[in-house]
């Protein structure tokens, strides 16, 4: 029961993180609440990788749902030994947790790239990536953020939302990594032994 509480709480934690990732990613499509820039393809290219909407969002919800099922006590018997069945279920939990790390890691990397690249915006020279050549140094130099004339406050919009996505996906990576460590320790330390003792049918 204690094992389920630990694993179940970690799996449940992934659900709000995934939902928030979906919301934040959607907000990236509407700078200042306007749909014009998305419809006219005037957004940073990294928002079209669906990192928070699909990978850290929908895919992570699926992973969380599967992990919650695997964490329940109603385990399906897949071989003769009960310990054997538990071990295979634990192995499945490791695999899906690893998938969770992959999905959230993808979101983390893409969001970081989007943050460093800066927004696609209109400057006095037209529409382009105004801060792409700064290699992310613009993040600490707010005095040049006004280079972007349109959308209004798009730099703040992108910095805040991409930073939130990085935080959410980073937490997902940590949660899934903890699950992998816990489940592997059960397998490697012999909590679920597949060896049938002599005399036991």
UniProtKB/TrEMBL annotation:
Pfam families: L6_membrane. Its main location: membrane. The lineage of its organism: Eukaryota, Metazoa, Chordata, Craniata, Vertebrata. This is Transmembrane 4 L six family member 18. The gene is TM4SF18. The chain crosses the membrane at residues 7-28, 48-70, 91-116, 159-182. It comes from Cavia porcellus. It is found in: Membrane. It is a multi-pass membrane protein. PANTHER family: TRANSMEMBRANE 4 L6 FAMILY MEMBER 1-RELATED, TRANSMEMBRANE 4 L6 FAMILY MEMBER 18. Keywords: Membrane, Transmembrane, Transmembrane helix. Belongs to the L6 tetraspanin family.
